[in-house]
Design goal:
The chain has about 100 residues and is an alpha+beta fold. The protein contains 1 helix and 5 strands. Helices cover about 20% and strands about 25% of the residues.
C-alpha cells in the first residue's frame, strides 16, 4: 500500500503499536509520524515504512500540518472506525479508500 504525507496510519510494531498517527513526511525507506499529543510535529517519530499501515485518504489539501489539525483528523478517523465496527454483524463493512498513488506528470 502506498503511503503519502497527510494519510492516517496505524503503527504495527514497537512501543506505539496500535496507535493512530498521521504521516507527516517520507524520508527514503522511513516515514515521519505525528499524533499531535505524544509525538508532535516539532518532535515526530521516524519509523520504517513496513511497520505502519496507511489507512485512508490524506488530509484535505491546504490543511496546515499542526498538532491541532492532526488531533482533529485522528479523532474524526477513529470515530469513523468505531461507527463501522458497530454495524450489524451480517452487514458487509464499507471499504475505506486508501491513499492515492502519487501522480506522475
Amino acid at each position: 500500500m502506498k503511503t503519502e504525507p497527510g494519510c492516517p496510519a496505524v503503527s504495527l510494531a514497537g512501543h506505539d503499536r496500535g496507535r493512530y498517527v498521521i504521516i507527516v513526511a517520507e524520508v527514503g525507506e522511513r516515514v515521519v509520524l505525528a499524533d499531535g499529543r505524544i509525538r508532535t510535529v516539532a518532535s515526530p517519530k521516524r519509523k520504517n515504512r513496513k511497520h505502519i499501515q496507511a489507512a485512508s485518504q490524506p488530509l484535505p489539501v491546504g490543511t496546515p500540518v499542526t498538532d491541532e489539525a492532526i488531533r482533529r483528523e485522528l479523532a474524526r478517523y477513529e470515530k469513523l472506525l468505531r461507527r463501522k465496527s458497530a454495524q450489524e454483524p451480517g452487514q458487509k463493512p464499507q471499504e475505506t479508500e486508501v491513499c492515492p498513488e502519487p501522480q506522475t506528470e
